[in-house]
């Protein structure tokens, strides 16, 4: 199990795992701190305080809801009546909430190592009116799954597996916690999201492509700095096969929010670019840095807050596999 402690980013959580909801409140094992990062170069060291990312993760998942709804509708054709759905690395629970709505007969368990994100997930479940069949489990994946009372009929890991050092090992544990006939669904990979045309009339064309390259470097650094990091060829169906599962499909889902962008989409674009500016600004050349500064300056008509050509085009890939009965 992955443990780590980073005094710079204390999560302020305890040293045990707790399950909330559905009448359960049990302890399990493991440490309560971690230091992995998403967030596009939030820090040079690839460290991010996940709890601090709560509002941003929630806003992003809400903006991406149409993409998730299509992915979940596709899953609903494969796993028609799951009894227990586990969202491994749920974050603030936007997708877990969509699972609860898509599968009204299912119990949903959101698992994450960031306690404050699970608090958000529980609050959301309350707002959605699904709290009676929604629970959270606080702990480090994949070990936290040892606390499941029942095997999962559907185990979803959306952009979370890549934050675990040993992805192959984690997949094997995910597979062990699937019921016979159950489905594992991994959302990993896809395409870099696009917000702007290639030539934005400010600086050199191709800014987003250059930011993508920096982000890919950050990602590699993030992965290699994870506790117990193992280099792995990211052939997800092959890795699911190695975990004893039978791959059943791969499909990519689009989020296509064309220009003119809504305020919510603009906020997402500005938030993402500002994190890229914070994380990678010093590795960009002066022209690109100046272009990014203009894009982020609300007083500038060329900024993403005001320019008419801002859009959000994203493609995320889902891979499924079943545990044969
Ligand atoms: C990129 S976010 C994805 C959140 C959500 N699945 C989504 O798609 O919006 C990754 C999530 O994985 C969680 N996470 C990262 N490492 C973890 C670990 N070792 N154990 C449990 N959760 C972890 C983080 O706290 C965060 O909520």
From TrEMBL:
Domain Methyltransferase type span(s) in chain numbering: 86-184
Pfam families, sorted: Methyltransf_12
Positions with biased composition (Basic and acidic residues): 1-28
GO molecular function terms noted in the UniProt entry: methyltransferase activity
Keyword line: Methyltransferase, Transferase
GO biological process: methylation
Family annotation (CDD domains): AdoMet_MTases
Residue ranges of the region described as Disordered: 1-47
Name of the protein described by the UniProt record: SAM-dependent methyltransferase
Organismal lineage: Bacteria, Bacillati, Actinomycetota, Actinomycetes, Kitasatosporales
